[in-house]
Amino acid sequence: MDFYEVVRKRLSVRRYRPDPIPDEVLNRILEAGRLAPSAKNLQPWHFIVVKDERLRKELAVACRNQHFIAEAPVVVCGCADRNRCYAKMGGIIHSYPVDLGIAMEHIILAATAEGLGTCWIGAFEEPEVKRILAIPDHLTVVALTPIGYPAVQPQPRSRKPLDEIVSFDYYRKR
């Protein structure tokens, strides 16, 4: 599948088959996250791969009762080390949310290329996720994603046209 086809096919999946993901496939997906760019190449990430069914069910509750998360055979929790990131991105903010966002998107697109489904999970109770996965205080949970074979194919959602979201040379409100 070429890159643009992967981008077009990436949709949020909320129903998964229980089929396991072969280790070599999962390792290729995780490698894509490892190779993501980060500010000053500090790579402030740590990925927790959750396969244990009991833990996945607990995570689903901590993710505001999104029970479909536990259906997937794997959940990846993307954490950032706040002490190992660039602290002046744009002169004002820490880079770790962006760094982790890029790495998680690499994981999500790689999963799509492998014929797997994902769903970006940003609705979660961080203290609960940290408790469940024994995440130390210096790490921040940025996002999670279930990964698995889709049980049903989601329908594409509408997207704004380019001329509504792109300006050339300077900002122009449309």
| CATH level-1 class | Alpha Beta
CATH homologous superfamily identity? NADH Oxidase
Order of H and E elements:
HHEHEHEHEH
How would you sum up the major sheet? Answer: 4 strands, antiparallel
CATH topology value? NADH Oxidase
Straight-line distance between termini: 35 Å
- What percent of residues are in strands? 5-15%
Q: What's the structural domain tally?
A: 1
Query: What structural class do you assign from the helix and strand content?
Result: alpha+beta
Coarse morphology: globular
Number of helices, where a helix is a run of at least 4 consecutive DSSP H or I residues: 6
Average per-residue pLDDT, rounded, comes to: 95
The CATH architecture name reads 3-Layer(aba) Sandwich
Q: Concise description?
A:
The chain is of the alpha+beta class.
Structure explained in plain terms:
InterPro entries: Nitroreductase, Nitroreductase-like, TM1586_NiRdase. Keywords: Oxidoreductase. Belongs to the nitroreductase family. This is Nitroreductase. This protein has helices at residues 3-9, 23-34, 53-62, 96-113, 126-133, 162-165, and strands at residues 45-50, 74-81, 117-118, 139-148. It is α+β, with helices and mostly antiparallel strands and 174 residues long. It has a single domain, classed as NADH Oxidase (3-Layer(aba) Sandwich). A 4-stranded antiparallel β-sheet has the order 1-2-4-3, with helices on both faces. The longest helix is centred in the middle third of the chain and has 18 residues, at 96-113. It is globular and about 50 Å long. The termini are far apart.
